[in-house]
Structure formats: structure tokens, C-alpha cells
Design goal:
This protein has a four-stranded antiparallel β-sheet. A three-stranded antiparallel β-sheet has the order 1-3-2. Strands 9-8-10 form a three-stranded antiparallel β-sheet. About 40% of the residues lie in helices and about 25% in strands. The longest helix is centred in the last third of the chain and has 21 residues. The chain is an alpha+beta fold. It has ten helices and ten strands.
């Protein structure tokens, strides 16, 4: 009937909060664990408790002893605290970029397919890591913000470093959206003709493209490569 939670030592404050919430006196123990992928030892903090009620509650929610391969998530998805559960998954088995609009989550193929349908994500790919373990990667601005806003709604307990990454992404998107409404001029490189627009969005509609495509992939498209955006 044991339930065990292991985290990086620097994230042990999460375990302290969990201990306090359930009123446990069990000690948090620290170990050095060898990571084969990175060929180095990591310091981890581990908390465990023997409680048949907690174990049975987890089982009823679809989390069993073989959770990596047998993850029955449909019950959890109907729970009012689903967003907090999902945030926990991202904190444990996810990645949020500090400087780029990128989020990834590792889980079973069935669960990641469910996530894509739940949020109605389009053009997202799953990458197989091993057996039935896959990674879902989000890079579309709207999808990333939609997902992160959902999992962090009314958040009181979270990994501080990942929550800060979320806030950075949110700030970056605010700047991105602000830039789009600045008046601009399109200059045709060949004719040297200048075409004014009230905002960058209007200029991009004129070119039938997007902000990301123009600035990052423009060189691939003959039409886009003929223009510069100038102030």
C-alpha cells in the first residue's frame, strides 16, 4: 500500500507542502541516483507513505502500480481538479522553455491523443520514445498559451521554475501581440515601392502569411523574400 513520490532535490519544497497537507510526520529522504542518459549522478528527494485509502483512491481515479503502461485517465479528466492533475504531469514529466514558446509532455500514446482532442490541437506530432511512451510537443503560440493557462488556472502549488517559464511565455506573447498593432511599411525589394499599413497584421494579411512565417521562414517563399517590413 505504499505511495512513493520522487523529485529532484531542488524541488523538495513540493514534498514539504504535500507532507503538510496530509498531516504526515514521515521524513523526506535524499539519495544520489545515477542517470544513464546523462551519465551522471542526480540528487533526489523521496517521500513515501503507506496508506491503503490513498492507494485505493488513486486506483479509483485510474492510477495503478503500473502507471507508466496502464494509465486510465478518463475518470481523472472528468474531475473538477483535472487542470491541477495535468499541471502535476507537466511538472514531473514535461518541459516548458524559458525563452521560446515551447511545451512538451511525456506520457502514453492514448493519453497524449486524448490531450490533443481535449484541447482541439491541430498539427501537433507525437514522438515515440520507447514502447508506449511518447512525447507531445507544442510550439504554436495559441496552443501553448491555451494549454499553460488551463493547467495554471487557480494554481497554488507548482514547480516555481516551470511556473516562471509560463509567466515568461505569457509576457513574450503580450509583447508579440503589441508589436503586431504597430503601424508599419512594406518595402518591395525589387521596385523599392513602399506600401503603408495601419499595423503589421494588415501587412501580413496583404502577403497572405503569418507573423512567424514572415520572420522565420520568409526566405523559403519567393513572394515573402521580395519584401521587408520597415518602420
Amino acid at each position: 500500500n505504499r505511495v512513493v513520490i520522487g523529485l529532484n532535490k531542488k524541488d523538495s519544497y513540493i514534498l514539504d507542502a504535500f507532507k503538510k497537507d496530509i498531516g504526515s510526520d514521515n521524513a523526506i529522504r535524499y539519495y544520489s541516483v545515477f542517470d544513464k542518459r546523462k551519465n551522471k549522478y542526480n540528487s533526489v528527494s523521496v517521500f513515501q507513505i503507506s496508506n491503503i485509502n490513498i492507494k485505493n483512491d488513486l486506483n479509483r481515479l485510474g492510477i495503478s502500480h503500473d502507471k507508466s503502461n496502464k494509465f486510465y485517465f478518463t475518470t481523472i479528466a472528468k474531475n473538477k481538479n483535472f487542470n491541477h492533475f495535468l499541471r502535476g504531469l507537466v511538472d514531473g514529466d514535461g518541459y516548458i522553455s524559458k525563452n521560446k514558446n515551447r511545451v512538451s509532455l511525456i506520457s502514453t500514446k492514448e493519453f497524449l491523443d486524448f490531450i490533443q482532442n481535449y484541447f482541439r490541437f491541430k498539427r501537433t506530432k507525437l514522438y515515440k520514445l520507447k514502447d508506449n511512451i511518447y512525447r507531445l510537443s507544442l510550439q504554436n503560440r495559441k496552443s501553448v498559451l491555451k494549454f499553460l493557462d488551463f493547467i495554471n488556472n487557480k494554481s497554488t502549488v507548482h514547480l516555481t521554475r516551470k511556473y516562471k517559464a509560463y509567466l515568461n511565455i505569457k509576457d513574450n506573447l503580450k509583447i508579440h501581440n503589441a508589436v503586431q498593432v504597430i503601424p508599419c511599411i512594406l518595402r518591395n525589394k525589387k521596385t523599392k515601392e513602399d506600401v503603408p499599413f495601419n499595423c503589421i497584421n494588415d501587412a501580413l494579411k496583404y502577403l497572405n502569411t503569418t507573423y512567424r512565417t514572415f520572420f522565420y521562414d520568409g526566405y523559403k517563399h519567393p513572394t515573402l523574400s521580395n519584401y521587408d517590413i520597415i518602420k
